[in-house]
Amino acid sequence: MGNQEHFRVWRGDDETGDFVDYDVEVNEGEVVLDIIHRIQATQAPDLAVRWNCKAGKCGSCSAEINGRPRLLCMTRMSTLPPGEPIVVTPMRTFPVIRDLVTDVSFNYEKAREVRAFVPPEGVAPGDYRMQQVDVERSQEFRKCIECFLCQDTCHVLRDHEENKPAFAGPRFLMRVAELDMHPLDAAAEQGLNRKEAAQDEHGLGFCNITKCCSEVCPEHIKITDNALIPLKERVVDLKFDPLIRRKKRARRA
Ligand code: SF4
Ligand code: SF4
Ligand code: FES
């Protein structure tokens, strides 16, 4: 027989809802998702929660625990303050479908807005060659499990619904940065300047490098330090580096 803990879980949809209290058994080694499942099994069979892998790899159990964006399956009960109520709410930045399940389609729309990798002309797939350092740089970004916790926590989106059309959010600015760093991406040859797109189409200027996105990333990706700041630096170079400006002017002439 484990301990009894007090859970406050948000129940409702996008229109209406409230907190519901549950006293529930907690055993050694359990994570918050185990407790949500126990509440479903014993007290609230209609409690909605999204999950798939229970291993921190599918990115579907994102929610907020005591106000902090977290994966339910990777948050051990032993890391939460004992004897205090545990408050579980859906991600605040996205519309609620029901209870802990949010509609994250905003993120899929933003993903579609980023132009895909453009293969280099005259090089067959399989003949691509890159320096190991370039492979490693993008490998970090490729660890993303699309949990959207970074999108949820970023204050540009979280507190300002009106910014959503103009701001892609950290996950997709990171994707733009990855493509811009890619030595084989031939977007420029097709007239697409990824740095200009980052600034003008994906809202890079909204980001004021608070690093909150990196702090909540379950894959520990250094989103701000390794993607957003370098991208901002390259955008600044594009605008203010006299050599780049001269080259651009010469190209226009
Ligand atoms: S660093 Fe930028 S993208 Fe990340 S949370 Fe802060 S404002 Fe948002
Ligand atoms: S960058 Fe990290 S926090 Fe953001 S969606 Fe990917 S895994 Fe989640
Ligand atoms: S259930 Fe897959 S990440 Fe939590």
From TrEMBL:
One GO-annotated biological process of the protein: respiratory electron transport chain
Pfam families according to UniProt: Fer2_3 (PF13085), Fer4_8 (PF13183)
Keyword Transport part of the UniProt annotation: no
Name of this chain's protein: Succinate dehydrogenase/fumarate reductase iron-sulfur subunit
Gene3D superfamilies: 3.10.20.30, Alpha-helical ferredoxin
Phylogenetic lineage: Bacteria, Bacillati, Actinomycetota, Actinomycetes, Propionibacteriales
Coiled-coil regions listed: none
CDD domains membership: fer2
Top-rank taxon: Bacteria
Cofactor: [4Fe-4S] cluster; [2Fe-2S] cluster; [3Fe-4S] cluster
Domain 2Fe-2S ferredoxin-type: 5-92
Keywords recorded for this protein, A-Z: 2Fe-2S, 4Fe-4S, Iron, Iron-sulfur, Metal-binding, Oxidoreductase
